[in-house]
Amino acid sequence: MTTATPMKTICAALMMIWALSMQQYGWAEESSGEAVEGDVAVDTTTDSVADSESPSVETADTASLLREDHPESHLVVKGDTLWGIAERFLKNPWMWPEIWHVNPQIANPHLIYPGDTVKLIYLEGGPKITVKRGEAEMTYAAEGTGTVGGETEAHRQVGQDTKLQPQARPAPLDDPIPAIRLDVIDPFLLGNRIVSQSSFEKAPYVVQGSQRHLISGAGDQLYARGQFDDSQNLYGFFRRGKVYTDPKTGELLGIEAQDIGAGKIVSKEKDIGRFSVLRANQEIIAGDRLLLNQERRVDSIFFPSAPKQNIEGEILDVPGGVSQVGAMSVVLITWGEREVLVSGHVLVIKQRGEIVRDPVTDEQVRLLYERSGLLMVFAPFEKMSYALVLYADRPLSVGDIVRKP
After folding, report:
1. 284 and 365: one domain?
2. 385 and 354: one domain?
3. How far is CA 227 from CA 78, 143, 203, in A?
């Protein structure tokens, strides 16, 4: 055997170390594809810039997207939202994907943390927005290694004879900022949901409380009947709410399952289960349904954006029973995942034109639709979606039209 192969391996390893050092300390050769703004250097010639989660930036004049009074940078603080930051830089905040630039030199470049700086840079003659890590990158938190039966994952990989040392791994101490205000929409993410009629009717249901109690609350036990998932023991208690149909076609869109509590299965035999009630927003009674516990949440990495396809739905309902809608109101709209709506999609709200009498022909005519606000989808279901009204310049109401901006 010759030494050629080991020597090639050593040379390749040295070249890799050199390349990594060049990337880490910014000792890169100058090229037309590199843009530098302050101490941020981004190599735009690499394929990593074209990230699949970030829409590609077209060659259009992105400068026209910027507000005239836009800042050059913004220091992110707790309480900021992606929508709020986009409003500071852009005339139309839903155009954020057209100007956002993924920085390949930082971990999780789609996440923005308090302490980060959002900066305006210029690449290939056009403005782009990127992020420079702040405290999130430099802060360290101890993370447990986790054991299974007294054996760490690392021990299982390297063997029992290897001595392992405790390590401190970099971990952000703050959560990334969300796309929109979570305090407004949390009840809809962790509570109510829209389900199909068949799913609701097939779900297990409450038979009665323990000791023949007609109502149950937190700390009580109750009995339920149905088919229970052997791999899950946490369930939510739900009450049948409104039934929604499409105003135009009459299609059944879904049933609102109203969150009234949560419980844990204690024991079961055949199709009867005994539950301990962990939480109760209302009194739980016979006939209430049980659905597997699930936590829906807004993922802070999604971008405010406009749908690609033309959409024309309408505001179908306002949770809480009110008819007038304003900024920061949560609404239910027709259209959902079936129509490729996703979290972050922004829609224009248009108020139906008033019906008036034509003074010449005496006919009833409808006036033009008036643009009256914006909303963002945050919890899409199959045929409907929860959305948050971002702003409204006049009172909105059920029946108002929602369209692609």
Report:
1. no
2. yes
3. 44, 39, 8
For the chain, 405 residues long, the average pLDDT of each consecutive 10-residue run is 43 42 37 35 33 38 82 90 89 84 76 88 85 64 41 41 49 70 70 89 94 91 94 92 93 94 93 95 95 63 81 88 79 92 92 88 88 90 92 87 91
pTM: 0.67
Cβ of 267: how many Cβ atoms within 10 Å?
10
Amino acid at 254: G
pLDDT for 272 = 95
Give the separation between CA 339 and CA 344, rounded to whole angstroms. 14
Domain identity same for 277 and 375? no
168 part of a folded domain:
no
Residue 173 covered by a domain: no
Asked if the structure places residue 264 within a domain, the reply is yes
Domain of 366 in residue numbering reads as 312-403
Interacting residues of 183 by C-beta distance below 8 A, sequence separation 6+: none
Q: What is the pLDDT of residue 133?
A: 85
Query: What pLDDT shows up at residue 328?
Result: 85
29: buried, middle or exposed (CB in 10 Å: 19+, 13-18, 0-12)?
exposed
Cα dist from 319 to 59, 99, 181, 331, 375, whole Å: 42, 35, 17, 6, 15
Question: What's the pLDDT at 269?
Answer: 92
- The count of other CB atoms within 10 Å of the CB of residue 398 is 16
Which of 225, 342, 343 lies closest to 289 in space, CA to CA?
225
**pLDDT score for 95:** 84
Answer with the one of 292, 323, 338 that is the final residue of a domain.
292
Are 86 and 48 in the same domain?
yes
pLDDT of 34: 37
Tell me, yes or no, whether 255 and 352 share the same domain: no
Last residue of a domain, one of 260, 292, 324: 292
Question: Does one domain contain both 211 and 239?
Answer: yes
Task: Please identify which residue in the block is written with the tokens 């055997």.
Answer: 1
In a domain, 128, yes or no: yes
246, amino acid identity: D
Structural domain count of the chain: 3
Which pLDDT belongs to residue 332?
Answer: 94
> Which three-class secondary structure state does DSSP give residue 379?
strand
pLDDT of residue 81: 87
Same domain, 324 and 358: yes
